[in-house]
Amino acid sequence: MTLYRNFSNVQADLSNGSLTCQQLVEQYLVRIDENRHLNAFTEVYATEARQQAEAIDQKLAAGTAGRLAGMVVGIKDVLSYTGHGVRAGSKILDNFTAQFTATAVQRLLDEDVIIIGRQNCDEFAMGSSNENSSFGPVLNAADTSRVPGGSSGGSAVAVQAGLCLASIGSDTGGSVRQPAAFCGVVGLKPTYGRISRWGLIAYASSFDCIGPIANTVDDAALLLEIMAGPDAFDSTVSSQPVSAYSQATLPDRPLRIAYLRDGIESSGVDPSIREATQAKIDALRKAGHTVEPVDISLIKYLLPTYYILTTAEASSNLSRFDGVRYGYRSLSNDTPALDLLSLYKKSRTEGFGAEVRKRILLGTFALSASYYDAYYTKAQQVRRLIRQEAEQLFEQYDFLLSPTTPTPAFRLGEKTGGSANDDPLQMYLADIFTVQANVVGYPAISIPAGTDANGLPIGIQLMAPPFAEEALVALARKM
Ligand SMILES: NC(=O)C[C@H](N)C(=O)O
User: Fold this and answer.
1) Is residue 366 part of a domain?
2) What EC identifiers does the entry list (predicted)?
């Protein structure tokens, strides 16, 4: 049976009668089973997906099916789906069952999407390699000795390996785009507030965005179109009208495209990535567009700003996981918790992994009375300056192009074990090109740009001003 790589082929075969949703689901279930070693899924909804497929086949026959009939997706383990477990890759949410469905997920279900399972990710979306999951690491299907990126690693690998047609991930600092780049697929982070965060387990609420991962820009655009728009459950969602992103076309004029000089010239960028970026620049120039180098003067403050503000927000958001209200509770008999405070302490120490504990500590420190102004206030001020610089840049340009990541997928353990332990910032540098879009709240997309000499995928990123998703996907589709 054909392995489908885009939704329009699925739709064509469903309508000419050569395919049913039930056959499609069986194919994915077999492939998921054959690829268990990749560890992309933490739970597979086999029975339910079969039932959904049967019901949608009937709707298709009756002509009443929704726009996503035949789209088989997986959802990252941070999205609530009522009656299903959701763990955020963490032991602290052991045995927790979602009590409601995320708005984004519900909108897909309303259009007859089939959800095939829940996908592995870094714990609470904190990581760039999917090595911080309590379910164990995910392997990159292009080379299983390498990481898939993170935090939506399972979601990216599931699309890469053909275990579902698309995935829904979340992106706080690159978590959709960086794994998409490492796995050779498309990852789209919309403008902050474009898609409701209701039902997304919060990491850093002023950065978090839900976003699709797919094989094609068209499929990512369609998923965005259906998930986007106002929602009474999330007051930060924009009421800006949702365009038909899947039909978007470019204006009939040469575009003004800036590219990040550091993306091409910095010695920290892998030569294969520099070449791939340069090739895209050359092609855009050949197509008649203006493509010019720019510098982001505040680039060295991007990661510090991001990690101060996100850890501060995380320390507050994660305080609800206390071992009392829900999730994991320390019941160790060797050293039992004797009072409420020690129950909190033990449950949180045992329930959270090392990276999450580290970030809660950092965030708590940044928010503490004596350091609040020195860190949190200062980082907010710098965030404002970074946004001003972006606003000025996009007064002159329609897009900003850069590599998605400085290197292709690195090896498992390369940035966590041994001497790498001495410098934990090495891992954070994997997000150097992706965090800007989150700090300023702008939309950005990573698209595949070939592979390096070892066959490892390379991704190119395009960023656009707020709510310019239409132009963003239109250009990405052409590249
Ligand atoms: N969540 C993300 O977008 C990934 C980022 N690497 C982080 O750990 O914060």
Assistant:
1) no
2) 6.3.5.7
Ligand 1 pocket, 171 CB below 6 A?
A: yes
Based on the number of CB atoms within 10 Å of its own CB, is 159 exposed (0-12), middle (13-18) or buried (19 or more)? Answer: buried
In a domain, residue 384? The reply is: no
Mean pLDDT, rounded, of the chain = 95
Residue 419 has pLDDT above 70, yes or no: no
Position 337 scores a pLDDT of: 74
pTM: 0.97
> pLDDT tens digits for 199-251?
999 999 999 999 999 999 999 999 999 999 999 999 999 999 999 998 989 98
Query: What's the total number of domains in the chain?
Result: 1
pLDDT value at residue 442: 98
pLDDT at position 288 is 95
Active-site residue flag, 151: yes
- Determine the distance separating the centroid of ligand 1 and the alpha carbon of 266, expressed in angstroms: 22
Residue 132 CA to ligand 1 center (angstroms) comes to: 11
CB 151 less than 6 A from any atom of ligand 1: yes
